[in-house]
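Q: What residues go here?
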């Protein structure tokens, strides 16, 4: 999915405000989510922003910082897969469309 420079800047501005826990309208959130469903890069930006908002910016030299830079939800204990309780297909059910296609 190709984005114009104007759309990319608008998306990055919204995502930055999310990471800083600033006000973001519902319309703006829907706008970003629409693009995140079709673009792995925008989905990664959004995942990182949510992680920074919840956990603060982690040091790049730490394991938490490494996980955060990769956009992996490893900082949230409730996001771990438990094979005794969870069904793998249900666990990935909320993934963006680009992951489901993989």
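A:
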């Amino acid at each position: 999915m190709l984005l114009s420079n104007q759309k990319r800047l608008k998306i990055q501005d919204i995502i930055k405000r999310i990471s800083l826990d600033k006000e973001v309208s519902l319309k703006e959130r829907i706008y970003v989510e629409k693009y995140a469903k079709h673009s792995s890069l925008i989905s990664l930006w959004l995942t990182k922003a949510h992680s920074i908002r919840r956990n603060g910016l982690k040091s790049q030299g730490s394991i938490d910082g490494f996980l955060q830079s990769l956009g992996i939800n490893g900082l949230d204990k409730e996001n771990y897969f438990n094979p005794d309780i969870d069904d793998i297909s249900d666990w990935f059910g909320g993934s963006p469309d680009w992951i489901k296609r993989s």
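A: Context that may help when evaluating the design: The chain has a mean pLDDT of 79. The radius of gyration is 15 Å.
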